[in-house]
Amino acid sequence: MKDMFSYKAVFFDLDGTLIDSAKDLSFAINSMTQELGLKQPSLQNMKNWIGNGTLKLVERALEFNGISPRGNELNNAFKLFANTYRECVGEHSVLFPGAKKLLVKLLANNTKVACITNKPLEFTEFLLQQNMISQFFSIVCAGDNVEFKKPHKWPLVHASKMLGVPLGDCLMIGDSQHDIAAARNAGCDVVAVSYGYNHGEDIALAKPDAIIDDFNSLL
Predict the structure, then answer these.
(1) Annotated active-site residue in 13, 175, 179, 189
(2) What angle do CA 146, 148, 152 make, to 5 degrees?
(3) 176 pLDDT band (50/70/90 cuts)?
(4) Per DSSP, which regions of the chain are E strands?
(5) What phi and psi, each to the nearest 5 degrees, are found at residue 210?
């Protein structure tokens, strides 16, 4: 792995990497389950489920209640979730320590920056704007504006092409095994944060190139 500021482009995951968004997601899921008369999962449940997009999050909340959702059942539950999440997204979410400082320094270094997340674009843009960091990103690859989601390499390859930077000069920073797998599949270096969600598993098991406890260590 090269020095942080020798990379020409840096790709950031969103939930659990740049932004602690679990409380907003938990509020929306709990509102959905309450309306459906179901048991509400805990905040820790939520942190373990984040990482595959909000539709999968809703599916896991239903499975937590012993429901194997299919078709209209899943779509209706997702609509209930989405209606609440649109109202609360960003309300309880905060940037992780050092995140904005690192983005500012990357901008000053003329490093191109992309956000690569499995969260739908609507919620991604809202969250970036609410936390006042949307201006740093040249491209946003979200869960519903890409051909394939992480852990597929497609979003990283697409971002590399759009930014005009070879993948060998790109760095992925994420919190989950999906981020690391996507980086490995694309052929770029990857740094993992230790504080993320990663389905409750130790991120070291996914063997990133480096693990950091906060972004200040990269400044």
Answers:
(1) 13
(2) 130
(3) very high
(4) 9-12, 19-20, 94-95, 112-116, 139-141, 170-174, 189-193, 210-212
(5) -160, 155
What is residue 196's three-state secondary structure? coil
Structural domains of the chain sorted by starting position, each given as residue range(s) with its CATH number in brackets: 4-21+93-218 (3.40.50.1000), 22-88 (1.10.150.240)
Signed CA dihedral, 164, 134, 116, 119: sign only = negative
Q: Cβ atoms within 10 A of the Cβ of 138, count? A: 12
Question: 70-79 in b/e burial notation, b at 16+ Cβ within 10 A?
Answer: eeeebeebbe
Q: Mind listing the pLDDT tens digit for each residue in 33-84?
A: 999 999 999 999 999 999 888 999 999 999 999 998 878 899 999 999 999 9
Q: Verify whether residue 13 is a known catalytic residue.
A: yes
Per the structure block, which two tokens stand in for 193? 């944060």
- Reduced to 3 states (helix: H, G, I; strand: E, B; else coil), residue 32 is helix
Contact 118, 54 (CB under 8 A): no
pTM, rounded to two decimals: 0.93
Q: Nearest CA to 138 among 109, 107, 169?
A: 107
CA dist., res. 128 & res. 183, Å (int): 22
Q: What are the tokens at 62?
A: 């239903």
